[in-house]
Amino acid sequence: VSLATVYVSLLVLLAAGIAAGFVGDHWGRLWIWTSIGVLVVMLGFMFAVASPYYSDLRRAVGQKAYGDKKDAAPPEPVAPEELARRLGSSRPWWLLAIGAVGLVVIIWLMEVKPF
Fold first, then answer.
1. Which 3 state secondary structure label does DSSP give 68?
2. Measuring CA to CA, which residue among 112, 114, 115, 107 is closest to residue 38?
3. In 3D, which of 45, 60, 21, 33 has the Cα closest to residue 95?
4. Which of 3, 63, 105, 108 sits a CA distance of 20 to 30 A from 99?
5. Are 79 and 71 in contact (CB under 8 A)?
6. What is the pLDDT along the chain (115 residues), one digit of tens a residue?
7. pTM
8. Which residues contact 56 (CB under 8 A, 6 or more apart)?
9. Could you give the CA distance from residue 75 to residue 56 in angstroms, rounded to a whole number?
């Protein structure tokens, strides 16, 4: 359910940004293209980092992950100690940091319009 909300929110963000670009006549400015580039790179990096991590966690608790065969049996859950070790990863903090820095950069570009 949360992924559907994320994707719908992302579409709303893109539609509003595109509309604002036309309303403000900003498409000839470099800052708006840089903002789009930052967003694309940030989303690509976050997807590449998050997908394997969360797929591994789903399998660790005995659930199928995206890409697993539909007719395959669910994986065996790992021991609680192993699950705690995997949950203790710093990867979610890296995702938070990348998302926050990317958001700050995009907001700065939108507000300052440096080029």
1. coil
2. 107
3. 45
4. 63
5. no
6. 788 898 899 899 889 989 999 999 999 999 999 999 999 999 999 999 999 999 999 999 999 998 888 888 999 999 999 999 999 999 999 999 999 999 999 999 999 999 9
7. 0.81
8. 65, 86
9. 11
